Amino acid sequence: MDIRKINDSISVSPQIKLEEAHELTQLGFKSIISNRPDGEESGQPTADMMCLAAEAAGLEFRHIPVVASDIGDRDIALFDEAMKDLPKPILAFCRSGTRAATLWALSQAPSIGEDTVLSAAKSAGYDLSQLRPRLSSTSNTENMSAKDAKSSTACDVLIVGAGAAGIATAASLLKRRKCLSIVLVDPSERHAYQPGWTMVGGGIFKPEDTVRPMRDLIPDGVKWEKASVAAFEPDHDRVVLSDGRRISYRMLVAAPGIKLNWSAIEGLEETLGRNGVTSNYHYDTAPYTWSLVQNLKGGRALFTQPPMPIKCAGAPQKAMYLSGDHWFRQGRINDISIQFHNAGPVLFGVKDYVPALMEYVKKYRANLNFGSKLLAVDGTRKEARFANTAADGTVTEETVGFDMIHVCPPQVAPDFVRDSPLANQAGWIEVDEASLQHKRYPNVFSLGDAAGTSNAKTAAAARKQAPIIAENVLAVLDGKSMPAAYDGYGSCPLTVERGKIVLAEFGYGGKLLPTFPTWIIDGTKPSSLAWYLKAEALPPIYWHGMLKGREWLVSPDLKKTAA
Fold it and tell me: Domain-by-domain residue ranges, the chain?
């Protein structure tokens, strides 16, 4: 090996062989940086091969491929980030070592000066004097805005949002390629298993069992930026954080979730969590739902569902079914008037599941009100105001008294998504429904609740999408065609009574996509086994499977090609 030491932190060399990784360990190196694009010449080891060889030798590895004539600011930022993150000393290589030395010089000149980097490179055998104009420009720019430059970072893959979709995607990416530099941006201190909140509202789960510290869930090897995103700048391959810092990326995966628009309902925020007003869509109020259900002896119980799209479209009626089941078991069902106010036109969007659900609507004596949109809640007077749309389009308003009301809030994309170049006309991130790639920015992908796809917004959908995103992101990084396609799969376990569930599983266009054969679980009928799946199996599958990159029953079919 022709290793040329620049300083105590870094040396550079021409292409190294796979079998030389162990020798580098013996020489005291801790990390390797490859600056060669894959396939640059015949017989060249790929980055994945080098990553495996480095790992086997106990070395860290980072791939920052560049073409000598086209080294951009993002490449320099990526190299600078690697210099900060990787254990030292580092060996950086390319075909001759020149690109590696060039990247080092360009990334370090702002902090140690152009004369110092040129002298160090020359001592190592690399005359980079032709870089002086660029080095000088970089140094001057840095001196003028040192604060901004010091606070900016770069990565291979930037993931916005550490919910179910974001963490699962990070885990699936690292499962496939351990050498990726991944940054995950999310301000939350805790992570919630939100599908469990319906069960909290039904007295089945304890609220504390549905949350865990975020720091315990971020995959090893992923850098967590505990911050909020203020803006997307896809034309510059970067995002802006709320504190002004910028993160550059080669690939962006946007999974920022959905905004619960509580303020869209007049008076709701002032009374939520008291005066009989509750919601399973909030960690703090889901226990209040169960308290109200237990203590209600008679009167009127309202359950509401806003216009679509919303996360887990079955959740508003799940609250109704579990409440009705308790009152039925307690012999109170005849004393309580249940009303379901749905802004939409049907009980459930996939007709195959409606007959089973209607049996429970009858059992609990629930009155269905379609085209009924909640406008306002007055907690002190215990009144709710609805806009009712008739078949001919006529809209009338109605005020209904209640003893308890379970509210599902209207939902929209986060503000910084709606105001960004990534958004479609409806405010969601504009992606192809099969590949989940952005329609205008090929190095941007999106999944989860904020993606502009027509599937049901559920954790099950994100679980299916994450490995598809991982496959397609890596393919685009490698300049290859995307191998995986999403069929719109989503699942909604409808808790129709304690101990039984109608397991709705479907894809684009309402096509049924059952995981199990009907002789095991017939999703169109209430099932005790489906209840066991929801109550006992799915939480550990979520915590220990989905968030760890274990793709049980959701590994993508790579024979399919995204449209």
Answer: 4-150, 154-258+413-481, 262-410
